[in-house]
Amino acid sequence: MKKRKVLKKQGQSGIKAVLAFLLLLTIGFHANAQSSAGVKFGLSAPYISPESFLVMDQGVPYYLVNVEHTNYGIHAGIFLQVQMGHFFIQPELLFNTSSNEYGIDSLYSPDAGKAHFTDTYRNLDLPFMLGFKAGVFRIGAGPVGHMFVSGESGFNGYEGFYADYNSNKFSWGWQGGIGLDFWKLHFDFRYEKNNSPVGDYITFFGKPYDFATDNDRFIGSVGLSF
User: If you classify domain 2-225 with CATH, what class do you get?
Assistant: First the structure.
């Protein structure tokens, strides 16, 4: 677990430096370009292939855990689009909420049957898109940071479980896609690739687990500029 925390701290330091650079880039770009700001909202559809995992303690199997269903997420927030010639940058600040439904078999107590529950997560997402714009059409890509805000875990109450949210306060990934701008209306269609596996906050009996799949998703948004 220590190794995973050290790697995450190193990744957090790196992404903070990148975000600071992108902020300075936005300020410099804004001084010589046209810009528009507004609000946006949308939906995200997860694209994952999770594996189940077996929880054991001292050689004794306790639980078999699997993802049963991944739900659509919703997001809303603000954006700034800055254009100079055919090039644009678009930083955003979005509040995102999503949830997964899990199943857990208690192997040490077969009569207990299979339990079903839902985990809910809330993040502040910080996408920073850079790309090319021609007429109403945009194409771009860029990093995205995820800052954990809160969550409720359905695993609570199971023996040996601990939700180690603090080890994953900040994670990052990449987005890429296309956009369309019609006067004050803005449409975005993106694919997001994240570096944090699904469920990587889960700890049973002091051992970290995850579902061996990145938390990737398709994202659709509509925005309105002021």
Answer: mainly beta
